[in-house]
Structures are given as C-alpha cells and as structure tokens.
Amino acid sequence: MANIPEVETKELKRDVLVRIIKAFLSENFEQNTRLIPYDMRPKGCEVPYRCCVFKERAILRDRVIAGLGFAIEEDDEKTLLSDYAKKSLDRKEPDHEPLTVLGTACKGCQASRVYITELCQNCVARSCIKVCRFGAITHKNGRAVIDPEKCKKCGLCMSACPYGAVVKTVVPCESVCPTGAISKGEDGRAHIDMDKCISCGKCVTACPFGAVHAKSQLIDVLNQIKQGKQVVAMMAPSLVGHLPCSVEKFHAVLKNIGFKELYEVAQGADVTATHEAQDLKERLERGDAFMTTSCCAAYNELVEKHLPELKKYVSDTQTPLYYTAEIVKKEHPEVLTVFLSPCFAKRREVITNPNVDYVLNFEELAAILVAMDINMEDIKEEDFTYEASKEAKDFPLSGGVARSVAAAWKGDKDAIKPVIISGLTKESIRTLSRCAKTGKCDLGNLIEVMSCEGGCIAGNACTSPFKKASKKVEDYSSKSHSLKDKE
Predict the structure, then answer these.
(1) Is 95 helix (H, G, I), strand (E, B) or coil?
(2) Domain that holds residue 261
C-alpha cells in the first residue's frame, strides 16, 4: 500500500503545479494531465485528508483546473482534465481575475460565533454581563449564556472573563478578508464577491484546506516559450529574498528555461521614488495635508472599490512595474513580458497595462525549477547589472517606499513625516477612511500603504521565511549606491 506523507497546503499546491509542468513537458500533455489525480491518489493508497480516495481525487481535479488557469466556478464537472489542458494551449489571453474557490476542498466552516465554555465558574463578579452593551449575556443553570441573536461578537466579554471561559470561533478566510469579499454562499461553501475583492490573497494563505486558489498563468508562459516567442522576465525586488541562488545565477537559470532576458524592477522603483517625491512636494505646497503611496496593487484596488474618497490623496505616480515594463518595451518592442511577482494582486494591475503580458508568482516559479529538475551547481553565473539604488532594492521591505521617497526628496528633509501602514486590515482601512473624510492625517504626511504585513517581502505567494528573505534583500541592496549619493 502506498504511503502519502502529510504535507502542508502550499506544498500540496506546488506538487500539483509541478505535475502540470511535467505533463506539459512530456510527449502527451493532455493525457498526463488527466492522470494527475490518479497518480497522486492511486488505488489502495492511504487517504490523508478526506473520507475516501474519490473525494481526494475530486479535489485534486479542481486544483489541476486552477493550475491550468481556469475558474472552478465555471466548471461543469463533465469536462475532462485532458480537455482543460487542450483549452489552456488554445487560450489567447489568461483570465485576469486571479482567484477561484475550490468548492470540493472548502470545509464549509461553521459560522463565526462567541459562546461560553464549561470553564465558566458562575462567579459573583458577573464581569461578562456588565461589559456587554447589547444585553446578550444572562446566567442560567449556574453558568453564563450568550443569546446569538443579540450578540455582536465585539469580544468585550472575552476580555472581561477572568477564567478565559468565553471563546470565539472564526471562519479563517472570512476573518482575514479586510473588505468582506468572501462569505458563505447558499451551498454553505465560500464564495468571492469580485466587486468587493481587492486580490490581496489573505484568504488564500488563511484557509487551512487550501480551498482558495490562484488561477495560474504557467501554461500560458511556458507555451509562448515553447512556440519560440521571445519572452522577457521582470523581477520584483522582493524575489532576491526568495531565490535559491545568486541573482547572477538566476539570470542564467531563466535563460536555460527559455527566457530571453531578465530585468530588475528596482529600475522602475527609482523612477517611482523620484516622481513620488516631486508629487508630494507639489501637494504640500498647494496645501494638501498628506499623500499616500501608489505601489501596492491591492491598496490601489481598495481605493477604487471601497475608498473612492481617498483617491485624490493617492500619488499620481505609476508603480515600479509600470516604468520597468516601459523600459523593456522601448528596448525590445517585439517581446512578451512576464512579471515575477510576490503576490496575486499584480494580476489585477496588469489588466490596464499593455506593456505587461503575464504574471508568474514566486510559488509558480519555484514549481518550474522543481519540475525541470534544474541543477544549480551545473549552471554558471551570467553578468546581471542594472542601475538601481539601494533604496529601490529595499522597496519590498516595510517602510522601504517611504525611505526611497525621502532619499529622493529635494529640500528640507524634516518636511517629510512618514506613516507606515504595514498590512491592510479592517482597522487600518478605518484609519485610512478617517484620513480621507477629515482631509488630514495626525501621524504624518507621507502614508506608505502595503497590503501584506512586512511589505512585499512577505507577499502571499512568497516561498521563504520572512526574516531570512528580508536579510537577503538587505545584503543585496547594501552593495548598491544610495539615491542620496546623487545629491
């Protein structure tokens, strides 16, 4: 009997992507894709997660569909994986909505609620009753009881109970979503409201069943390379922290895969910093109280969909990717461009950018390296030198954008007062909303906003531990000049 070791959700997703790539590289892509669920859960195997092998194969089928770049919501359950594989090759352009929900994998978690456990001691203090502003708590039969109809889940009773007898259950994907975009549908499974979704990807990492999945553009990119198209990769500054090798060797690795060239998006970050510094200067001179940065795609989508009143305070400057793609297309008008991204949100940004054709995230890139069995020791480093400042290469670290703007600032350095919002949450969104409505920010005048806590180095598609990745970025950037050196 085959033994299947327990693996983490990310590893399971990567395993599926690796098998899709291997199928693509084989002589029979369609047939080998169809067999993936059966190869991963063969007859007689131990079933690690679900009730039976058939349930697990059904979930793996959905993972393959998402890995091929299709939405599970549009699956009719009759289409064979081999047909999906063929359709992925015939696709003219990928689906720009980055996320899909695997209904088969979704556990259908119970709704969030606050309740009293058996730890309640029926104490005289009655602290839980006293702090509840909604009259939701009473004492019955020697213990406290919460009326779910009256409870607002504020959590005050949890803090007040000296015994920790009050607990709150959560639905992981719903609890982390800052915009309320994901919720239970009529079928009891999670559904994403794309009109509310900002593609931050927090639900992807939060779901312990891996039910929220990215729709990959892997086959689109690999197929273009296979057809002999010239494809250029543009590397997000955060990628340095997640590479298994030096940037110079990675440059050579990409050429072995079939890419024509590698560009460093830090080039564009210098342009962004310079423009944002000038933008801030002009805004302060005309009397604006503050300006927010414009680099995070999830934040920009948040403003567009949920905080339109904040839009006038967002810098008019384009993102580092925008300026880098301009450089690439100017130097190589005929190429296709692929952004190597730490997150899912960039997929939404490129919809309106004709200079960016595809997005691969770091997890998908790692799957390519595994599937192609690339031996780093056998590959020689290639020169890779692009003019970019230390500050530009530090862009992915929390506070990095603000530091870059400050370094590019012409004039009194004390005039800039940075505010760092590291991670979009319901609370940080309320803070931004208050700033927009009052027209002022008490904490400062340059607000850096990043959807992911810690910055892009901790993006939802990153592959290395935060501290390790941050250290690698800092070491890499320390070898470059500072924008201040140009003064």
Answers:
(1) coil
(2) 221-486
Length of the chain: 487
pTM given for the model: 0.91
Dihedrals φ, ψ of 232, to 5°?
-110, 135
In a domain, 191, yes or no: no
Answer yes or no: do 313 and 422 share one domain.
yes
Q: What is the DSSP string of 113-167?
A: EEEE-TT----SS-HHHHH-SSS-EEEETTEEEE-TTT-----HHHHH-TT--EE
Q: What whole-number distance in Å separates Cα of residue 106 and Cα of residue 422?
A: 29
Determine the Cα–Cα distance for residues 317 and 272; give it in Å rounded to an integer: 6
| Cα–Cα separations (whole angstroms), residue 140 to 51, 101, 136, 165 | 39, 42, 13, 15
Short-list 209, 210, 219, CA closest to 20: 219
| 132-177 confidence digits (pLDDT tens) | 999 999 999 889 999 999 999 999 999 999 999 999 998 999 999 9
Q: pLDDT category, 358, cuts 50, 70, 90?
A: very high
Same structural domain, 1 and 70 = yes
In the numeric block, the tokens 């702090």 are attached to 131
CA distance 67 to 84: 10
Residue that has been written with the tokens 């009473």 in this structure: 138
Q: How many CB atoms lie within 10 A of CB 359?
A: 30
Do 345 and 482 have their domain in common?
A: yes
310/453 same-domain check: yes
Any domain includes 30? yes
